[in-house]
What we know:
Number of helices of chain C: 16
Helix content of chain C: over 70%
Bound molecules: adenosine-5'-triphosphate, magnesium ion
Number of domains of chain B: 3
Oligomer: heterotrimer
Amino acid sequence: MLDQADTIAMDVPPEADSGPTRAAGEEKKIKTTGRVTVNKPIITARDVNVRYGDKHAIKDVDIDIAYNEVLAMIGPSGCGKSTFLRCLNRMNDTVDIARVTGRIELEGHDIYDRKTDVVTLRARVGMVFQKPNPFPKSIYENVAYGPRIHGLARNQVELDEIVQTSLRKAGLWEEVNDRLEQPGTGLSGGQQQRLCIARTIAVSPDVILMDEPCSALDPIATAKIEELMDELKENYSIVIVTHSMQQAARVSQRTAYFHLGDLIEVGETERIFTNPRHKLTEDYLTGRFG
Amino acid sequence: MDTAEKVRAGLGKRYAAERRFRLFGMGAIVVALCFLVFLFASIIGNGYTAFQQTFIKITVHLESEVIDPRGQRDLHKLRTADYGALVKKSLRAQFPEVSGRRDKRKLYGMVSNGAAFDLQAMVMRDPDLIGKVLDVWVAADDDIDMLMKGHIDRGRPEAERRLKDLEVGWIDRLIADQRLEMRFNSAFFTAGDSREPELAGIWGAAVGSFYTLLVTLLLSFPIGVGAAVYLEEFAPRNRWTDIIEVNINNLAAVPSIVFGLLGLAVFINFFSLPRSAPVVGGLVLTLMTLPTIIIASRAALKSVPPSIRDAALGMGASKMQMVAHHVLPLALPGMLTGTIIGMAQALGESAPLLMIGMVAFIVDIPGGPFDPATVLPVQVYLWADSPERAFVERTSAAIMVLLGFLALMNTLAVFLRKKFERRW
Amino acid sequence: MTTPMLALVLLMLIVAAFEAGRRRAFHVAGNEFRSLHSRPRYYGSYTALWCIIPALLLLVLWLSLKEWVITSLVIAELPAALRSQSPGQLDLLVNDIRNQVATGGAAADALPAVAIAVDRYRDLQWLSYTAMWVAVLSAGIVGAGLAWRRIAPQFWARNRVEGIYKGLLLVCSTIAIFTTVGIVLSVLFESIRFFNAVPVLDFLTGLEWSPQTAIRSDQVGSSGSFGAVPLFAGTLLVSFVAMMVAAPVGLMSAIYLSEYASSRVRATAKPMLEILAGIPTVVYGYFAALTVAPMLRDTGAVLGLSVSSESALAAGLVMGIMIIPFVSSLSDDVINAVPQAMRDGSYALGATQSETVRRVILPAALPGIVGGLLLAISRAIGETMIVVMAAGLSANLTANPLESVTTVTVQIVTLLVGDQEFDSPKTLAAFALGLVLFLVTLLLNVIALHVVRRYREQYE
Ligand SMILES: Nc1ncnc2c1ncn2[C@@H]1O[C@H](COP(=O)(O)OP(=O)(O)OP(=O)(O)O)[C@@H](O)[C@H]1O
Ligand SMILES: [Mg+2]
């Protein structure tokens, strides 16, 4: 479905149209190699710029995210992967100095619009963080928290059900069903991260953002999470930031390569890894990059 | 000379200087600790005797002609009867040889004024006692108490003594008759203030302190936590926030008496709140302890790891929900510790309360935060000003009680900190 | 109806508003319960808050104004003869009327005009009470009603409710500012009134302080007895003695604890020093008056010196003890902030420990230590109980610590404690002294906090 010729579907806007977000004299927009659009996007991001004070961390990024796909974002450290990811559910709002411009739409609704409630947005676009961060509460409470605040369960039975299905989907149920009352912080790192995933899917979001979810885990725990992602993409769209090429290759359908705040190249994962078009992508993938 | 030799030559002097410096350091600590020990020794040495009090056994006839001549058992009559006369009569019976107005007055002065109230209370409790003859232990006058505790020296010439030979003779006779005895001084813990040392207690001041602290706690904890939460979690970084911060830090160092002036001008003169009332004291102490609580609460909030906040926000919790459900519960022990320390400060504070009239002489136990009252430290101040020798030990004992409460609160704070201390 | 009952009615109203809001949320959502923007209870809270806030605001406003309004009305209706008295006498009359109202009615011996005023006062009180509750409850109902009408599925109730909470938190954080403003205004106003009677210059430069002479009402306070220089001198003398004790002892113990002591010694000595900080100042005052002052006097007698029983030395000495832990903990922080690398550099050159401390650490930590000492001085100047109990009342202008002096804080206390006539220069003088005290300590604190902050930033 995505395998049409990798033409650049996005027209590069003429300089005059680049909008007020770019000051005169700033470096020219780098054209993204590869096709950034998809046929049926759940999220479309256009002209996204992020500045931390004077630091321009994301520069004119355009990209779509499709339903039921895993999109991997790779790139050298500090290139802005996390920053871009956090734009997608407005976690950047919590950073005082961060300024986000551009347009990001979730199913056609601008998420930065004044009429969008950030809470509703985050319930639909969940996030899993680099370091597992369960609440210092019981396993049950960790998973039940989201449904509770969003009022997803009408009664205790429904809540129990949600907790159980979420833990099952996260592949954790077998391991913890006899100790739901114990603190989530007492689990192993891998289990904690799966608990965080369970917690996220308990709200049944549309998109799950994962920022290096496996970087604190050992290979076995990593394998489990990767397996899990494969299953989850049946129901959700997943955007994952990773530093592991192998992981990106294993789990994702599409890959986006970022470099110093620019989105350099996007394409089908297989194509990117076998036949990168942009010099920078190639350098990075072959390890020639710093 | 080469370097090594030069160094060696100066070494002795340098090491001597080193030892001297070290000694100064140690000396400083020792001096500070000596002060501490000296202070405690002086307070305890002066105060421990106050927990005992001299009592005299009198044999009273609860004559019905005096108490209830008509035999109606009318409570009002029973209350207003002349019990003092009964006490005097029993003393006269004990020492029949005493004659002359002067000597008699001295004799009556042997027992405390409180004796009559003791009898009254006994009769009110059990009117059937009327008509009976009873042995009753009543508090002795404070001078006798002082003699018994050795603060009045029998060896000094009579003219320089508060108790004359005559009275000392009576006391010896009472001792010989086993009618004089040291007992636990319960009045000290149950009575309000009094001009008579043997009747004066700290209960009134303790209750006043309680109401004052209650008002302080009820106001300063929520306000302090609210302010800390706002500044730490919600406030944008701007000039306004900076001003608030600088303000809080400065308030923490403003002399306490200035808060008293504020209380006098604003709460009493402008808002016409009652003088001497624990509410006003509580309000003033609230303003005083707020900086402490805010600063401690902010530190507690800072120690909650940001990953918890990310987790909550990432789940779609609003900022308010994030704070209420996750951050506050984790920061609460730290906030409570800070609050207890603030309360301990408030409990020991007296200067601003002098300004708002909590120094009045108040006998009654306050029944609520609007009644006139005093507080423990101010009671200490009042007693310290009293000329009677017997108030010295009572002042010291009141200090011991005050320090006991403070020790308790600080221990609680340390315990809380140890128990809930979390390393992330 | 009684106040508790009415309060209960208000409470019930609030609960009802909550319930009504919640139900309406369910109602407007119909079956599509997820179409609601917020959870139903937020719609309830929203309605309840709009019931509480107008009601409480009105209540507070009414309560703070009613006394003033009633009094003005009653005074306006007094016969002209009574009304045209001097303000002081009118105040007395009003107080009298209030007392009679409080004790249940006009006294038998009251003037007819006063008796009428008392009755009027009572009627107005009753009227105000009734009107107040009617108004408060109506405000609650109206507020809740308006809120209730706004409820719709796409109404962001949670955000509104949280906005209100956030506003409340903001109010909490501004209390600190209001306190400062309150302090400034209250001391400033009274001080200005004082300076109307006594020129500022006379106050700040006069060498004689005897406020008691101005107590007679026929005498204006401009008799020249409000010269505050002896108080300033006394304050400085006592603070100086205190700092002579606290600075060396505090600093040396901080150095010893952070540079020399083993961790075991530190673990015991530090909390012990902190005990000194936790002792109430009234205890120090008592200790000074009861133990230290007589001891100094006796020692002086042995040495052939005449030491006043309320000497500046005794008060200053004990105040110094009180400040030791303050100095030592501030210096401790500061010394610990000096980077280890500096020490290492000095040791590597073969310096002994004390040389390192004196030549490297202390100079590096100097700004911080100075800041700490400034804070300590500010404390000493503002300390009250110790000097009230151990220093004297007589305003001697002397630099001899063996004599008795008085301080600013002592005078504030003596002027304001006990019977006071408001408006007399004697009372107002206390506020003028308070103003000076506040400004001086504020200045010291601002400088000290600034210096310490700058110092910390340097090593962070
Ligand atoms: N809160 C912040 N304040 C200022 N600058 C920031 C902030 N967060 C990120 N940056 C800057 O923005 C740029 C992009 O950071 P980002 O965290 O998105 O990188 P990343 O690609 O996720 O790196 P990594 O792979 O190391 O996680 C970096 O140069 C970083 O220094
Ligand atoms: Mg990152």
